[in-house]
Design brief:
By secondary structure, the protein is an alpha/beta fold. The protein has two domains: 105 residues, Rossmann fold; 95 residues, 3-Layer(aba) Sandwich (Rossmann fold). The protein is 37% helix and 25% strand. It contains six helices and nine strands, in the order βαβαβαβαβαββαββ. β1, α1 and β2 form a beta-alpha-beta unit. α1 crosses α6 and α5 packs across α6.
């Protein structure tokens, strides 16, 4: 049984999509071992508890690089204690440290609301809208030491309609995130792939 650790900072809609996919059998032989958040008040933690899942808040104490490193050490310890084999960032609004990446090499996934490498960072949907992009979307990728940079597992596109607002575009991108993230997790856990350079390829 594959054990997932889900990290979130907000309401946890992608976490809930992952949970539904597991329950429905779309992510075989998997379970959510723990849901972690840097925000004790995150609604996603309450949602996890209502589902009977382990949910733990680990807030950062203090500021600066030392406090960030100490916080990530606590997160790594919690994930290790719960026997997590794949870490899923699901609206986790922090940049993780290189030590975090090293603790789970090629075992951290993230979903980003743009077609990377376009529009990395915050408010990607608004960036795409303001830029006048005709096609937007979402990307599920492995996490490395750079922001929104790791090897891409899959992407889904969303057309930008003439009548869109940044908010309506964001809502349609989120719908595709809920489809893409479970699909990517199932692919990675299935293991039938290889990575050549920056390319994720289905195994021959």
């Amino acid at each position: 049984m594959h054990r997932l650790g889900v990290l979130l900072s907000g309401r946890g809609s992608n976490f809930l999509a992952i949970h539904r996919a597991i329950v429905d059998g779309h992510i075989p032989a998997a379970e959510i071992a723990v849901v972690l958040s840097n925000k004790p008040e995150a609604p996603g933690l309450d949602a996890a508890r209502e589902l009977g899942l382990k949910a733990v808040a680990i807030p950062q104490e203090g500021k600066g690089p030392d406090a960030r490193a100490i916080h990530d050490t606590k997160m790594i310890a919690a994930l290790t204690d719960y026997g997590v084999d794949l870490v899923c960032l699901a609206g986790y609004m922090r940049i993780i440290t290189p030590a975090f990446v090293e603790a789970f090499p090629n075992r951290i996934l993230n979903v980003h609301p743009s077609l990377l490498p376009a529009f990395p960072g915050l408010d990607a949907q608004h960036q795409a809208f303001d830029y006048g992009a005709k096609v937007a979307g979402c990307t599920v990728h492995f996490v490395d030491e750079a922001v929104d940079h790791g090897v891409i597992v899959l992407q889904k596109t969303v057309p930008v309609l003439d009548g869109d607002t940044a908010e309506s575009l964001s809502a349609r991108i989120l719908e595709q995130e809920h489809i893409a993230y479970p699909e990517a997790i199932a692919r990675v856990l299935g293991g039938a792939y290889r990575v050549e350079g920056r390319r994720y390829l289905a195994a021959k």
